[in-house]
Amino acid sequence: MASSPTARRVLVSLLLLRLLNTSLVWTFFQPDEYFQSLEPAWQAAFGPESGAYITWEWKHQLRSSLHPALFAGVYKLVDEVSSLGSFSEPLRSALLLWAPKFTQAVLAALGDFFTWRLAANLYGDDSTASTAALWMTALNPWQWYCSVRTFSNSLETTLTIAALNYWPWHIFRPAVPVKGNPKPPGAALRDSVNSLRLSLFLAAVAVLLRPTNILIWIPVFVLTLRPTLISARPTNLSAGDVLVLVREVVLCGLLALSLSLASDRLYFGFWAFPPYKWLHFNISQSLAVFYGRNPWHYYLLQGLPLLCTTLLPFVLPALYSPGPEGSSRALRVLPWTVYTTIVALSLISHKEVRFTYPLLPVLHVLGAPNVAKFFAAPSSTGTRLRHKTYLAAGLAANLLLASYLSLAHQSAPISVLSFLRSEFTRLHPPHAISTAAHPPDERLFVMFLAPCHSTPWRSHLIHPALTARALTCDPPLHTLPNTPERENYRDEADRFYDDPALFLSTELWPSSGASGSGAGGAEEPAEIPRFIVGFEGVEPWLKDFFANEGHHAGVELERVWEGWNGFFSEDWRRAGKLVVWDTGVYDNSTGV
């Protein structure tokens, strides 16, 4: 492997890589990419009449506004530039669509950069291990698939690895006595106090953003204060250093907390502390289980393999014996961040791979020496590659996996919104497209009869006058844990898929004089939209309903768009193609 390039060249290369990356991610992963970041950001930027979809978490202050505040600023900037430049509506819409993606690409590149820098700090700037860490983070399929998505976990990952990079790892080096002129107490940390402050501030923001991030920092602080847990030898940490550390923790923590409180005050309109609300709802109220239950070994048997993919054989040994002989004792701290986080999160019923995403850069750094040792060998001219067959096979597997997931798997929920936007602009005059509020006579443009949050919302629909409705899946906030009412609760999407015919005829479009019979049922028929979007499995139910009970509305369903959605689906309700049906009840309807 070649020696490590300069920091500037590496950063520019990573920026170009992630900009290409975000341009080639055309698929849907999980709703939080949009509904926990871009939707509240859209509302913050353009107001409550802008058509953003605000989920129950934001209405109950479970989420920190720090993350959407970033994208709200981006939206406002694009809007101001578009106004000053008198941009056309299509150009403005394109900029609003792509600006958050490019912003996230920059954050992803910074995460890659700090992964490399931490490896360089621990192994040496010109070491093959630091170079290996750079290639690992650049070519990891999970990074390609997830790092450029606007998840709070993606921002948390960048903040975490940046904070770990700025952490004063030099205090883990053996203490060196100085004859006649001993170091004053606290000098070890005072020499790098600016780096320490930056590390603590970034860590505090990450914890406020996602409270579970504290699990990464508990072992870092404990093993920093009690180095004898990983080694019997003394370190440079003195009693004065401990005081410096405590002082900076308090100051940096208060600074981050003040920033968070001010941001939440501006967003919610009153004082709120989302980490407390998050703990209350997800732990004491046990509401997280409504989004799925997983076995205790989920992160061991699925989480780590999905994060590391082909790198897993190099990472697992590093968790047991981190670093080469004679390496820094700081490398013995990093595995404990993995142990603590995996064990703690395994005790929670609801599990997702992205909850452990902030560990991935640490895993890259730990596994880098093993990768370098296996694929690189010293030679008279420097370093040469070996085991090229295995390397080519691993790279091919990564390329195929990243390409399929980013270009094909669940691509229809993204492409269908392009179709809806184009139809809306075709059917509406410019003044209706650019208005900030819904015209009073605007009828429902599209209804999504699919599992809730199956597509992005206003961040991709863009136009505030493009009215839309979707099935909901709010948890039963009014019920108590372990009660029959909680156990038997069925949200709107559940009731639709339990019995589509019953839901259509009693809740959504009941016949004249009937009222909804289900929980939350409609007392009046819902408006018939111009388009209905759903997965093709519901088509027989829709056609049967409108043929037998909905004829009074003049509905004659016609497929006008369909999109392939991948070879498989993790949810049976999302199986098959995604389809758009024209109801035929409006003038200027379209067909194919």
TrEMBL record:
Residues 1-27 form the signal peptide. Belongs to the glycosyltransferase 22 family. PIGB subfamily. GO terms for molecular function: alpha-1,2-mannosyltransferase activity. It is found in: Endoplasmic reticulum membrane. The lineage of its organism: Eukaryota, Fungi, Dikarya, Ascomycota, Pezizomycotina. The chain crosses the membrane at residues 200-223, 244-262, 296-319, 331-349, 355-377, 389-407. It holds the Pfam family Glyco_transf_22. This is Mannosyltransferase. It comes from Cephalotrichum gorgonifer. Pathway: Glycolipid biosynthesis; glycosylphosphatidylinositol-anchor biosynthesis. Mannosyltransferase involved in glycosylphosphatidylinositol-anchor biosynthesis. Transfers the third mannose to Man2-GlcN-acyl-PI during GPI precursor assembly. The keyword Transmembrane applies. GO terms for biological process: GPI anchor biosynthetic process. Its EC number is 2.4.1.-. Keywords: Endoplasmic reticulum, Glycosyltransferase, GPI-anchor biosynthesis, Membrane, Signal, Transferase, Transmembrane, Transmembrane helix. It is a multi-pass membrane protein. GO terms for cellular component: endoplasmic reticulum membrane.
